[in-house]
Prior knowledge:
80% of the residues lie in helices and 0% in strands. By secondary structure, the chain is mainly α. The radius of gyration is 18 Å and the shape is elongated.
Amino acid sequence: xxxxxxxxxxxxTHAAFVLFVLFGAALSLRWPRMAYLHVPAAAWxxxxxxQGWICPLTPLENRLRQAGGExxxxxxxxxxxxxxxxxxxxxxxxxxxxxxxAVLVLNVVLYGAAWLRRRRxxxxxxx
Length: 127
């Protein structure tokens, strides 16, 4: 049971990281220093998708599940948990690239909004 619980905690951590990669730039609108954590995380998330790599958390989860008497799974976190919801057919290379592009575009938009917001505040203060 301990291994299964640990595997579930890895999944929750992985899901939280994916959400942070996708939406962490929004946090920087409120807390600008969050960008120091988010930019490397977003770069890692995009790199994983562009290269078709599997995040190291996925094999860790599989090892824990197997140690707990469950079957592991093939592929990555996105293929196993996200794509069955979005794409029942499975992950293709073009989907992975699209996810990577979505991460970059979303973050460029959010960081652009943060930059404009800070710029407007600086303009108001200097007036």
